[in-house]
Specification:
The structure is a single chain. By secondary structure, the chain is an alpha+beta fold. It has helices spanning 3-13, 53-57, 65-91, 116-122, 169-173, 191-194, 197-207, 221-224; strands spanning 18-23, 43-50, 96-99, 127-128, 134-135, 143-150. It contains eight helices and six strands. A hairpin with a 5-residue loop joins strand 4 (127-128) and strand 5 (134-135). Bound molecules: cobalamin. Cobalamin binds at residues 27, 29-31, 71, 101-102, 104, 110-112, 115-118, 121, 128, 131-134, 141, 143-145, 187-188, 190-191, 200-201, 204, 217-220, 222-223.
Length: 241
């Protein structure tokens, strides 16, 4: 097996559901903190972990305590996988840097070190949907993401086609009408092109995060109603009588 596939199967064995490689050159122009974050690197490894479908099915018009508890658990798993990935790349002789799964560096404008969604899209994990999130063909947006930057000579994957089509489920379901319903073939030029961004931020930070047993700015409604990844296979041999 070549080095890229070896790395991908090792990362999968550590608990990742999806792994792809983005060419850092394709990220030219993206906002990063610090501005020269990408300078020493040529590749970005994008890693996704799926959340249980049932967690989203329990959400109606607000996030649930179960969802609030699971998000940090998945972030911890992602951070651990990213750390181990980075460590292995370093042992193999390459530079590497994990970017935390969920760390906001600018709380006024809501920016992290780099957008995991942008990396994931260029690594072929999915497309940027009308809900502004990464939508994967298999799990929809029911995944959380992490990124590892490296200069290892990994083989790159490429973006996949946007499959939102005429679906407007997320736009119709958003409790504050934040989703504009605009399609993109690649990615939005600004968050405001896809969202009434402040409406989303205010609902999540001003209301949902202040609810008892929630405490974090989460929602989950535009994830739940997305048709991608919603179906699960039932084991027909199980007798429920
Ligand atoms: C701050 C933050 C928030 C803020 C601001 C959200 C926002 N839209 O920026 C708040 C608190 C509101 C929030 C809300 C949510 N968040 Co949030 N959030 C983050 C965080 C920590 C940073 C995001 C950031 O820096 N955005 C910067 C903007 C500019 O990036 P962007 O949204 O991707 O959009 C631009 C780029 O993608 C760019 N782009 C895309 N491709 C390319 C390519 C090139 C070459 C260039 C130049 C640009 C480019 O174009 C877009 C417009 O400029 C990330 C973790 C991370 N490091 O990515 C999680 C993250 C984005 N959040 C996540 C989630 C799930 C949510 C929520 C659903 C809440 C929840 N858990 O229920 C909502 C969804 C809101 C929505 N519909 O967008 C997940 C998304 C997973 C997925 N499947 O896509 C992430 C990745 C966390 C994770 N580790 O998984 N979040």
């Amino acid at each position: 097996m070549d080095y890229t596939n070896q790395m991908k199967s090792t990362i999968t064995a550590w608990g990742a559901d999806l792994v792809g490689i983005a060419d850092v050159a394709a990220l030219a122009g993206i906002k990063t903190n610090p501005v020269d974050l990408l300078a020493p690197f040529t590749r970005a490894v994008s890693i996704a972990v799926q959340l249980p479908v049932s967690v989203f099915e329990m959400i109606s018009d607000q996030p649930t305590p179960v969802y609030a508890a699971i998000c940090p658990t998945v972030n911890r798993l992602l951070d651990e996988i990213a750390f181990k990935t980075s460590r292995k790349l370093q042992i193999d002789g390459y530079l590497s840097q994990p970017i935390p799964a969920s760390q906001t560096l600018d709380r006024e404008n809501w920016y992290a070190a780099i957008s995991h969604k942008a990396v994931a899209r260029l690594a072929g994990l999915g497309w940027q949907g009308k809900n502004l999130l990464l939508i994967t063909p298999k799990y929809g947006s029911r995944v959380r993401l992490v990124t590892v930057l490296t200069n290892a000579p990994l083989e790159c994957d490429g973006p996949v086609k946007n499959r939102c089509g005429q679906c407007h489920n997320c736009q119709e379901a958003c409790p504050v009408g934040a989703i504009k319903g605009v399609s993109t073939e690649s990615h939005y030029q600004s968050r405001n092109e896809a969202l009434h961004f402040r409406r989303c931020v205010e609902k999540l930070t001003g209301e949902f995060a202040k609810m008892p047993d929630i405490g974090v700015p989460i929602c989950g409604i535009c994830i739940k109603v997305c048709p991608f990844g919603r179906k699960i296979k039932h084991n027909k041999s199980i007798n429920h009588t």
